[in-house]
Design a protein that fits this description.
7-stranded mixed sheet
Amino acid sequence: QVQLVESGGGLVQAGGSLRLSCAASGRTFSNYFMGWFRQAPGKEREFVANINSSGGSTYYTDSVKGRFTISRDNAKNTVYLQMNSLKAEDTAVYYCAASRYGTYRREFYNYWGQGTQVTVSS
């Protein structure tokens, strides 16, 4: 089992920044790919970004490229999502998740956090 706890969400004005954190416990964190997903009201949960186990490879959905950065610190068992130039359409509950596979497909992520709300006011 891997337990994940997100933090860092909040209310921010458009153009602002937030940094989300996801602390992991349980099985060896460094064995897993880590991903961030988000879910806006009335919409399906969508992929945002992922990072491989070493942190050397990242992948982003097109809508956040150049604005968001995913990173990890395996010594701290933590993955981060730095979000800059935020837009109203980034408003959602953000979830971190762990997978054995490097994929954008949520069905391959076995472990999920409880989510943290990000609200961007325009």
